[in-house]
Specification:
Order of helices and strands: EEHHH
Number of helices: 3
Distance between the termini: 25 Å
Helix content: 40-55%
Length: about 90
């Protein structure tokens, strides 16, 4: 089963520890905001990629939590997360 580099998309062999094209470590999992799956800041898309689940499920959970916390505390947490979590390259 071949994998692709998260940074450059180069096809990797199963035993590769680093991408031969760009040198990115293969097995390092890092929480990043998503560029491709972003509606507002990419926080939910990044969480979905990190946990390998559907981004719409994360967005539904985030919406429910924002409403349950009285809107403003949840939105503040979302925007703080958007400022803290780095954007993927």
């Amino acid at each position: 089963m071949s994998k692709e580099c998260r940074k450059c998309g180069h096809t990797l062999d199963d035993d590769d520890k680093y991408c031969p094209a760009c040198g990115t470590p293969v097995d390092v999992k890092q929480l990043l905001r998503s560029k491709n799956d972003a509606k507002i800041l990419g926080v939910c898309g990044g969480l979905a990629e990190y946990f390998d689940i559907d981004s719409n499920l994360i967005r539904l959970i985030a919406t429910l939590l924002i409403v349950a916390t009285g809107i403003f505390p949840g939105l503040i947490i979302y925007f703080v997360a958007g400022m803290i979590i780095p954007l993927e390259e």
